[in-house]
């Protein structure tokens, strides 16, 4: 795997700008991969692991850039928890680790870069220097990845009996009368048809 600076440069290009979230995401991904025994995430081991991210912020772009995992490849799963954390799962060994950015690191940034008065710039630079145990909490965890969430071809495709949309990967639900429905027909849509 490339070194931190190389990965940060690539991540910044993908994200569009450098920020503290990019530094956190690159370091977080490097730790997660290391802890589950993945050292070639974009090559020979690209199908051997799975990542669950808990926030839709800058760090997630960095995690995707470092790992090569994407929603489209079904190797990246987004859980809308609003927590700066990600869980890395080795699909071959079952080893899994959750890495969380420590909130207190925001305040500790001044200790590492007192000469920088701008808070955002101070955090950006401090997060590069901070020892990983001050910046992150690392927890071994157990994750059961459902068969229908694994990368690969869909397990099945069924048609919603209400709207006619096709539903993949066991995401259909049964309606009150036992009919097969898509989730929007069963639970409501996020949009209105006009």
Note down, in words, how this protein is organized:
It is a single chain. By secondary structure, the chain is of the alpha+beta class. The protein has 2 domains: 4-148, 60s Ribosomal Protein L30, Chain: A, CATH 3.30.1330; 153-187. The protein is built from 7 helices and 9 strands. It has helices at residues 4-15, 20-35, 58-67, 105-112, 119-129, 132-135, 183-187; strands at residues 49-53, 76-78, 85-90, 96-101, 136-141, 157-159, 166-168, 173-174, 180-181. The strands form 3 sheets. Strands 2-1-3-4-5 form a 5-stranded mixed β-sheet. A two-stranded antiparallel ribbon has the order 6-7. Helix 1 packs across helix 3 (58-67) and helix 2 crosses helix 3. The radius of gyration is 20 Å and the shape is elongated. The protein starts with a helix and ends in a 7-residue tail after the last helix.
By CATH reckoning, the class of the largest domain would read: Alpha Beta
Q: What percentage of residues falls in helices of 4 or more residues? A: 25-40%
Structural class: alpha+beta
Ends distance: 49 Å
The CATH level-2 architecture of the largest domain is identified as: 2-Layer Sandwich
The CATH topology annotation of the largest domain reads as 60s Ribosomal Protein L30, Chain: A
User: What is the percentage of strand-forming residues?
Assistant: 15-25%
Radius of gyration: 20 Å
- In total, the number of strands is 9
- Reading side by side through the largest sheet, how are the strands ordered? 2-1-3-4-5
Counting H and I runs of at least 4 residues, what is the number of helices?
Answer: 7
- Principal-axes geometry comes out as elongated
What is the count of structural domains?
Answer: 2
Overall pLDDT, averaged? 96
Largest sheet: 5 strands, mixed
- Stretches where pLDDT is under 50 for at least 5 consecutive residues are none
Question: H/E order of the elements?
Answer: HHEHEEEHHHEEEEEH
